[in-house]
Amino acid sequence: MNFLAAFVVGGLLCVVGQLLIDLTSLTPAKILVGYVVAGVIVSGVGLYQPLVDIAGAGATVPLIGFGHLLAQGVQKAIAENGIWGVLTGGFVAAAGGVAASLTVGFLAAVLSRSKDQN
Amino acid sequence: MKRLSKQQYDEMTKQASPKSKPLQNCLWAFGVGGAICLVGEVLRQLYLSAGLEKDIASLAVSGSLILLSGIFTALGWYHRLAVHAGAGTLVPITGFANAVVSPAIEFKCEGLVTGVGAKMFVIAGPVIVYGVLASEIYGLIYYFMQKMM
After folding, report:
1. A58 CB within 8 Å of a chain B CB
2. Could you read off the pLDDT of A90-107 as tens digits, one per residue?
3. ipTM reported for the complex, 2 dp
C-alpha cells in the first residue's frame, strides 16, 4: 500500500512537470525553481505533511518535497533560535542534499571524461 | 538576410521543433518518475527497519538516490532515460543531482575552479537561491504569526 501510494503520487507530481514542459515554454531550471518554491508555500499552509504521511518517498523525492524540507527546517530553527532561525533554517535543512550532490558532482567530474551528450 | 519579427520567428521555431505527443510524454513521466519514487520508498523502508530515525532515513534516501543518479549520469544512462521520461527524470531529486553532476563533468575541461566548481551550480544555484529566499519569507511570516497568537 505504501509502495503503491509512493509510485502514484510521485508519478503524478512528475506528470504536472511534464505538462508544464509540453504546454508552456518554461525551461527545466525554471520548473525546478517553481517546484521548490511551491513546496515551501504548500508546506507552509500545512497541506504537504498529510501527503508525506500517505505517500512517503512519493512526496519527499520529487523536488517539491525539497521545498517542504526547507519550510520544516525554518520552523524547527525558529523554535530553537527565535527570529535568527529565519536565516539558518532553510540552509540547514537543504545542507544534506546539496552537500551530497556537489560531492557526487565533484567526484564524477574528477573520475570521468566529458563525453558527447548525443 | 531578411529581418524577422518576433512573431515570425516564433512561428518558425514552432514548425521546426518536433511535434510532441503530450499523452505519451505524460505516461513516460508518470512511469519513470513513479518508479524513481518507488525505489526511494523501498530504500526508506529498508533504512527505517534498520533502525534509522524518520528524518535521518529521509536524508539517507536522498543521499542514496543522489549517488545512484551521479553514477547513471556519469555513465550516460541518465541522459538516455531522460530523452523519453522528460519530467519523470527532472522532477525527482535524481534530476537535481543530474543537473549538478552533468555540467560538472561537461565543464571539467575549463578547470576545477571556474569549470567544475562554478558550472555545477548553473541550475542547482537558482533552485537553492529561490528555495532559501522562499523559506526566509515563510519563516518571517511564521515567526510573527506565532508572536501574535
Report:
1. yes
2. 999 999 999 999 999 999
3. 0.93
